[in-house]
Write the structure tokens for this entry.
Amino acid sequence: MKLIVITTPNYFVEEDKIITTLFEEGLDILHLRKPDMPAIYAERLLTLIPEKYHRRIVTHDHFYLKNEFDLMGIHLNRRNPEEPHDYHGHVSFSCHSLEEVEQYKDKYEYVFLSPVYPSISKASYEPPYTPEEIREAVAKKIIDKKVIALGGITPETLPEIKDFGFGGAAVLGDLWNKFDACTEINYKGIVEHFRQLKDMAE
């Protein structure tokens, strides 16, 4: 099962070092998501990450970065719902209902379904479907290996995600909460937590 990491919305000093270490530890895909940040900060971050890992990075914004840094691809969502007219390559997409998954899944490399559990990074962001409805969607082949679970992904929920039959899980709050960018320099805790998630996903 794929394990995808989504960046925090803001940049911080140790971010490039942590991301590089996560790639060294076997991170499959990183989604670069900084919705309110200027492109120049994304460019700086990418120049600090070794080029050999660029092909594992998907950007949610500033789609020109895909070609400029030879990234894996782009991700579409409500803010950026359409790919550039001359774009060719990997595209993924955010879905927030089972109906959207059914509608969009076959158009893209994979889709996110969120939130599968109550979100850690967004307060009061609750799933609109029950575990029973998810299992029914699996039985109907709406959820399969092209669907990535997002929202509330932790070591406690990951086994159920795997059992449901999702193609992967995307983690954000549970991972980045293991590091306080304002007070910490040592990021050993976040790396160890990633290893735990990675082992559980395999």
